[in-house]
Amino acid sequence: MGIKLDSSILRKVAMALSGLFLIIFLTQHFIINITSVFSSEIFNMFSHFMGNNFIVQFIAQPILIFGVLFHFIMGFYLELQNRSARNVKYVKFKGGANSSWISRNMIISGLVVLAFLGLHFYDFWIPEMKYKYVDILAENPFRYYDELVHKFNDPIKVVLYCISFFFLALHLLHGFSSSFKSLGTDSKYSNSINMITKIYAIGIPLGFCFIAIYHLIGNFVTH
Amino acid sequence: MKLKLKIWRQKNSDSKGKMVTYEIENISPDMSFLEMMDVLNEELMSKGVDPVAFDHDCREGICGSCSMFINGEAHGPDRYVTTCQLHMRKFKDGDTIYIEPFRAKTFPVIKDLVVDRTSFDRIQHSGGYISVNTSGNTQDANAIPIEKVNADKAFDAATCIGCGACVATCKNSSAMLFVSAKVSQFALLPQGEVEATDRVLNMVKQMDEEGFGNCTNTGACEVECPKGISLDNIARMNRELLKAQFKK
Amino acid sequence: MNRITYSLNYRKPKDQYKASDELTVCLRYFHKNNPKGKGKIIKKSTGIKCKLSDWDSDWHKNPNRYPIKSSDKFSIKKNKLLNEKVINFKSFLKKDSQFEVSDSFVLSSNEPDGPLAQKWTNHKNNIRLVSPANKRSIDVIVVGTGLAGGSASATLAELGYNVKSFCFQDSPRRAHSIAAQGGINAAKNYQGDGDSTFRLFYDTVKGGDYRSRESNVYRLAEVSANIIDQCVAQGVPFAREYGGLLDNRSFGGVLVSRTFYAKGQTGQQLLLGAYSAMNRQIARGKIQMFNRHEMLDVVKVDGKARGIITRNLINGKIERHSAHAVVIASGGYGNLFFLSTNAMGSNVTASWKIHKKGAFFANPCFTQIHPTCIPVSGDHQSKLTLMSESLRNDGRIWVPKDKNDAKAIRDGKIKPTELDENKRDYYLERRYPAFGNLVPRDVASRAAKERCDAGYGVNKTGEAVYLDFEAAIIRYGKEKAHLKGLNEDDIELVKDLGREVIKSKYGNLFQMYEKIVDQNPYFTPMMIYPAVHYTMGGVWVDYNLMTTIPGCFAIGEANFSDHGANRLGASALMQGLADGYFVLPYTIGNYLADDIRTGPISTDLPEFNEAEESVKLKINTLLKNNGSKTVDYFHKILGKIIWNKCGMSRNKKELKEAIVEIKKLREDFYKNVYVPGTNESFNEPLAKALRVADFLELGELFAKDALERTESCGGHFREESQTPEGEAMRDDKNFTFVSAWEFKGSPSEAKLHKEKLSYDNIELKTRSYK
User: Fold this and answer.
1) CA distance C750 to C652
2) 8 Å CB contact of B158 and C226
């Protein structure tokens, strides 16, 4: 492509695009996860497909990992740059008078989400990779649902999970609509974008929490 | 009114500054903020203390000289006004008021509350113009009709006074609102189209080189801007830059 | 008589010459007691020849004092050259201090011959040009970056000169032209209402009460249309109609719509246009910009302006800058009054410094007092804010009919909205039924003062009248209701609709008023009072905009040229840009053509040394002066003297008092002023002290000029010269001239030179707005 990220606006656009890409991934992730509430078979089917399809595993997955890493590294880089743009800090700074806490603290919500991702990788992804590519265990198209349910039997974990999604919601509340602004969307669409942002940023994390709590309660009932 | 003022005092660009507290009495609510500063300075001088230096000129909110960060906000608590138009009736008797210069690495302090904003000028030098010579026979002003909506939008963008409140108030010290206002003004007019590609690329490049921070769309600049320059301009500049990338 | 005259160098008796014989013109200087003892006449040959038939022996009777008739093919060139020779000869004589040379001769407007409409074209065709290659080796200094200075810098740089621009603000974009609200006139006739160059010229001369130079004003009107084209090409977003074409509004004192505007921020938009043109040249390296620099003296070498001395306002460094010509575009001197609509930093220093070095100062007493400003609220007031003249299109001006009502309003016992219609005195409509609220600025201002002086003022200090929009709100509201098919009798609904219309027209002004006064002008009438706004007087310049110092030019508000005794609304922006974009860049070439071989001017010349030393001495004197009173203390007193005794109406007694008081104040200033800090730092009180020191001198000349002009004209109202009804009375027989003052050591010694004004194309009439 030959596009160099040599201008602050291009970097910002890259942040927006990687963010939107992650949003698409998150949607897809949610759709698969929510099926676990309705039917373990469908969930297993999707999971097996995702876990063993060549395109998903060797093309989509690396892109996703790159997207995640890019979004975080660029986020940190920009944050550092932004901080150095004001070498003497204000004695009194009333940010709340003109902007939301959320928009000013994307780095905090981002860090919480990053920490969660670490946990999530440790919990799901690393065992999964180990299962498939290190230990090379036999394919089992029916294991996914049980594994999922099993992960949610610790209430502390579920609480942590929910807190993380709360921060993700905060991150999305600003990030979703902001990425459209970064891409230069005309303000005539801003009302609808803001509406969609609110629905998405609250709805999706709430849904994830619902799945976790659903299985937690399910675990209590069945045990 | 009786007030306690905490003011940033800094001798020159090389020295370190600090907040100094002054008490002041007999302030009328009808005074403008800068008139209150005049009273303070007269008092300081009568005591042999160096008066507080601050930038000011037109005192009617249009030159963009005044640049005070008052109680944590650029140009103070009122909206759509510059410091010179802020009046003391916005404060209460007994208030403590923090007064600091506009802070950013790109706005180095010259003395006390006076900062150097020539970085803004340099951005303008890099492309804030339409290249037309004064010949006396440019085409007739009415030769190109311009849609009123666009003309009005261009005007709204052009009302920027270059005070730097956007940079001062942005948590990232970003100058996007300022730069985008100029880019937008010309982008919305047919006269500006010819040089649009180079203009946006050069101005953004200069902005980056100066060391302003990045825009994260917090929207604080729009709220604090004394002229109400809209965030739309930033979106428009993003668009212009992307367009320019493809044309390049 | 100590003066220089032209004569022909006859070598044999006159009658032995034929009409076609060519003779050399020579200059003669006659002195009663020539100290060198070689007779009473000093003669100098000019080397310029002319046929006997082309010689005008009555040359001293024509206004330009050109000795060679137009029957000579090269008469224009020759006459110009002769004039320059005179200037050189005079400076040669002056160097020898034993000669005392009269300057009255030099005051030639240098306006070109020919019919009025052809003058500028002819002039442009005949003036000398500098080739592009030579322009590269010529430097020009421009002081000030407002509309005039900014546009001149940009255009000179485009032409190829090396320009050095100076401003005291932190950026050229902050010059006070930015505060102009209403608009800019141009004879475009886009509205098809019969406007023309001549009409704009006529309105401007008439509006100026016949005290401006015909040829200059005509040229201004002629280039006005180009300004709009130029600005639109630069991307200035003027207001447009729905069809996409430019919109116009009409302004006080004229019968056509010729004012182009950009809401209430026309000056800002035009200045940003000029600033952007400058930016382009700064980027090209053709303009070297010096922000936060104040000019503190001009440097003359061999009688010509060759540089300036500046102070860097950040670190106090005194710097020398040389150039082949110096252009002063530093604006007006309204801040003489302390309270004015000028910016806090606006000052007369640059103009005054050149005045002290030989530039004549013209009509200093011609000041414009703008009728619609926000009144003073207390002693703390630092400046005044204008409410655009356009408001008078829709606002009605009144005070209570009864003094008791006025008192009740002042005491806050009743509100203006509670006062019945029949208890209000719409005094402008009463006195001037034909023009009503739209009389010219000077008339409206005096009328307001008259009412307030009589005890009808409506604010706490009794110095305010009402500007009421109620009638307009109802009128617009009814129109709107009719258009929308709503009930026209529902008064509240009508008013709401009307307020919307008013908001779309004047929204920013109403908001500004509310922020300052804390009253909502949509619901209660505005309070207004006249305030100093613009100075028509300024540095005297000829048709080429050159001052009486060769190589020193003055443009924009800094010069005196185009507005006579009163400026019409929306003409200041026009003049600034006309001078800067379209006039000076051409006429300066005529002077610089002599400098193509001069080479760079050294700043090590003794003249630079001398100027720098005197600046440093002045600064040190002020800093070491162990006084006890601040600069503002003196400035405020000066302002009060000028406002009270040389303000909206003037009389002999008070003017005489003012002269004495200002002189005393000046002495007190040098004894008792306290300037804190050092020179080597950012020191605003010091910068202010240097400016006020010059105001203290100008103030005296101002009063002296007002005293000398015993007629009333335009903004200058002498109580001794009024009609029985109290209207201004001009004295054309004795005062149809420009007063140009020559500095002679102190303001009180200033010598008056008169430039006679002749009106060949319009008839002098008494202004009447009844």
Assistant:
1) 18
2) no
pLDDT value of residue C34? 55
pTM: 0.90
Q: How many B×C Cβ pairs under 8 Å?
A: 214
Choose, from C441, C451, C567, C730, the residue flagged as catalytic: C441
Q: Which CATH number fits domain B3-111: 3.10.20.30, 1.10.238.10, 3.30.750.200, 3.90.1140.10?
A: 3.10.20.30
User: Which residues have CB under 8 Å from B217's CB, separation 6+?
Assistant: A103, A174, A177, A178, A181, A182, B231, B234
CA C410, CA C413: separation in Å to the nearest integer?
A: 8
Q: What is the pLDDT of residues A29-50, one digit of tens each?
A: 999 999 999 999 999 999 999 9
Q: B129 and C268 in contact by Cβ < 8 A?
A: no
Amino acid present at C320: R
CB C568 within 8 A of CB C251: yes
Contacts of B202 in chain A (CB under 8 A): none
Determine contact, residues C560/C714, Cβ cutoff 8 Å. Answer: no
Per-position b or e across A4-25, b if 16+ CB within 10 A of its CB: eeebbbbbbbbbbbbbbbbbee
Which CATH number covers residue C705? Answer: 1.20.58.100
Residue C288 clears pLDDT 60, i.e. is over it: yes
Q: What is the pLDDT of residue C603?
A: 96
Pairing of strands C526-535, B68-70: unpaired
Contacts of A168 (CB under 8 A, 6+ apart): A109, A112, A113, A116, A205
Give per-residue pLDDT as tens, C45-84: 888 888 888 888 888 777 677 888 888 888 888 888 888 8
* Chains contacting C (3 or more CB pairs within 8 Å): B
Rounded Cα distance between B243 and C748, Å, is 67
Which CATH superfamily is B118-133+144-247 part of?
Answer: Alpha-helical ferredoxin (1.10.1060.10)
| DSSP state for residue C342 in the 8-state scheme | S
pLDDT tens, residue by residue, C352-382: 999 999 999 999 999 999 999 999 988 899 9
C441 part of the active site:
yes
C428/C446 Cα distance (integer angstroms): 11
Contact A161, A212 (CB under 8 A): yes
Pairing assessment for the beta strands C293-301 and C751-756 based on DSSP bridges:
unpaired
B174 contacts in A (CB within 8 Å)?
Answer: 8, 82, 85
CATH value at residue A49: 1.20.1300.10
